[in-house]
Amino acid sequence: MAKHIYCRHHTEIEVPFFDVDVMQIVWHGHYVKYLEIARCAFLDEVGYNYTVMLEQGHAWPVVKLDLKYVRPARFGQKIRVEMAVTEYESCLRIDYILRDAESGTKLTQAHTTQVVQRLDNGEMQFQTPENWQKAVRQFKGFTPLANG
């Protein structure tokens, strides 16, 4: 069964020199940073970024990360990080595809899961805050789950 996509977002990044190795390809660990850059751009656009999360008394740690490298990104290459939000009520689950911005060639695919944790006592929450859910539902292009 296909995953439901609640909303999509994308960000473009140019690979900087300090992210590549002697072969001028991106060191594998930097892909995590590219996911974070894209996720932060999405959260800013939703109006519920990490500053808001902290003000609301929550941390949102990444509890699961999966990366599959298909082709290397290279110094100076413009890459497009495409995101698809597949869960936002119990956690924040995002699927990513990193592509060459010009050709559309797939470079990497990834998935992250973040959960809500209360800052005052460290408890993990099994539902995301209602004001977060409202922010996502108001995002342009939000597609609700069809009633069965």
Automatic annotation (TrEMBL):
InterPro entries assigned to the protein according to its UniProt record, in alphabetical order: 4-hydroxybenzoyl-CoA_TE (IPR050563), HotDog_dom_sf (IPR029069)
GO MF annotation, one: fatty acyl-CoA hydrolase activity
SUPFAM superfamilies assigned: Thioesterase/thiol ester dehydrase-isomerase
Keyword set, alphabetical order: Hydrolase
Gene3D superfamilies in UniProt: Hotdog Thioesterase (3.10.129.10)
UniProt family annotation: Belongs to the 4-hydroxybenzoyl-CoA thioesterase family.
Protein name: 4-hydroxybenzoyl-CoA thioesterase
Taxonomic source organism: Neisseria elongata subsp. glycolytica ATCC 29315
